[in-house]
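Q: Hi! First time doing this. I have a protein sequence and I read that you can turn it into a structure. Is that right? Here it is:
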Amino acid sequence: MRWFRRGPGRQPVQHDTGVRDALLNDVRTQFGGAVMMRFADQAETVSRMLAGDDGLAVAAEVLRQSADAAHAELSGQVTQLHQRTGYWYAVDRRNYRPLLRDAAAHLRWPMFELRSGFHPYAQIAGAVAVIDAGAKRLTKVSDAAPVLDHLFELLDLTAAGWEFFGVPVDTDAAALAGRLIAASRALHDAMGDPPPIALPIRELMRRNNTLQVYEPGSGRPLGTFNPGQQMREVLLT
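A: Yes, that's right. Below is the predicted 3D structure, encoded as structure tokens:
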């Protein structure tokens, strides 16, 4: 399994796929919703595990598998909906918002049911932190464009959870969104000639909604979060 591809101007990268496979398996099996550890602590532990080029490659793979699994889950739900009702909706992973505006009432948020086995607030949050810290290095050893696509895609889905599916905006959810925004900026800047900011993110940036943030479990209000404002401040400055 060769996750790092050579491209124009990129250095040849020697790596041991066995090391990366083992790391990926450890991240998949040792963390998640069933583990008796706070999600914030799990994400921090994952980010420490994924050090160096091997860890950076595994972090990118976690994002790829998670984005692919979310798309597959939503596509499967839309197919089932079509079979029940006869209605068909397009599933465009570049912009999920049109689909969810029309059909979210008949669908489930996919991020808690990923077949990849990765939890958004544990493994995915940890992997995003690794990409944020290693953005410059990633552009030297790999094609960063798909990774940026996955960051934007996961940010789109995270915000959609709050807007369309009633997912609680707790500190874990807000932390994931903040990490996705920061990592998107870091990788976008490191690419030199980056693509435009994804359409759904540009739509979210035009919002100015302040959300209440809650303590996980207790539901105690802890503060507020304005995702559109944070995206503007981070991605446009």
